[in-house]
Amino acid sequence: MCRWLAYSGDPLQISRVVLDTKHSLVAQSLNSPLGAETVNGDGFGLGWYGPSRDPGDAPAVFHSIEPAWHDENLRELAQAVESQLFFAHVRAAAGPPIQQTNCHPFRYGRWLFMHNGAIAGFAAMKRELLLEVAPEFFLGIRGTTDSELVFHLALTHGLMDEPIEAMARTLRRIEEAGRAHGVTAAVQGTFAVTDGATVWAFRYSSEHRSRTLFHSEDIDVLRAMYPDFERLRVFGTRARLIVSEPLNDLPGAFIEVPESTAVVVTPDGAYEHQPFLAPA
Question: Does the CA dihedral 40-41-42-44 come out positive or negative?
Fold first, then answer.
């Protein structure tokens, strides 16, 4: 499917995690040991916020259909841009064509969204779900992926007011539509959304066997564990990462997010875990 990461914290050069770590996102685009596909070479995208955390500020985005390991612009951009909150995504297309409008992250106003996984039976239910997108969001759909439709359905269901509740309503609605078309397990994946201040990430699938998801350990804890590990010094004390798979091999550096869980990274850098559509 795909690989992604979300960073929040003190301003950080994007290349520090997208390019420079042992298992960076670009490295995962070529070799993803924990992914459904080993290679994720069907385009990539970045979304980042400027130095202000003003909630009215919209993020910048950059999309390319080049494989991440092959695109010189990605290296130039990632080394030049520092951001206190950014999303990065490498794509393995599950059917929709390889085009810029199908690359994550997707943007609406100040919001960013990305997904790893798939909606089973999407072609059968696509028209029905598209017609449920509110008119004020409908024209924002520019591509053909299930992921972009999930985002705009979530906006319709109140994402900008209640992110966790809106994602729950959206995925339950997709499951309902799937059952009507004979699909018993429609939803698979991990999802991330941000308004530029808070990050919400979700690990959920209808079968409760979701794609992998991890978040970083507190940086002060890691420095105490590994006082001689030089690379930790580039990160500020509020640095937080949510990733499809760990970026290094340090034991304890990344913590697996439980199945059917929502993870929240607050503006002050705290992690919060909440059950999300957990089985009864």
Answer: positive
Task: Name the one residue in this structure whose structure tokens are 């530029």.
Answer: 196
Of 109, 110, 129, the C-alpha closest to 119 is 129
Query: How much of the chain is in helix, strand and coil states, percent to nearest 5?
Result: 30, 30, 45
Which pTM value belongs to this model?
A: 0.95
Rounded (5°) CA angle 9-35-125: 95
Contact 43, 91 (CB under 8 A): yes
Q: Is the dihedral of CA 20, 18, 258, 239 positive or negative?
A: positive
Domain residue spans of the chain: 2-275
Q: Quick check: 94 and 1 in contact, CB under 8 A?
A: yes
Whole-number pLDDT of residue 280: 55
At 237, is the pLDDT very low, low, confident or very high (cuts 50, 70, 90)?
Answer: very high
Residue with tokens 């509020």: 238
What backbone phi and psi angles, to 5 degrees, belong to 115?
A: -150, 145
Encode burial over 91-115: b for 16+ CB neighbours within 10 A, e otherwise: bbbbebeebeebbbbbbbebbbbbb
State which fold the 2-275 domain adopts. Glutamine Phosphoribosylpyrophosphate, subunit 1, domain 1 (3.60.20)
Please name the amino acid found at residue 205. S
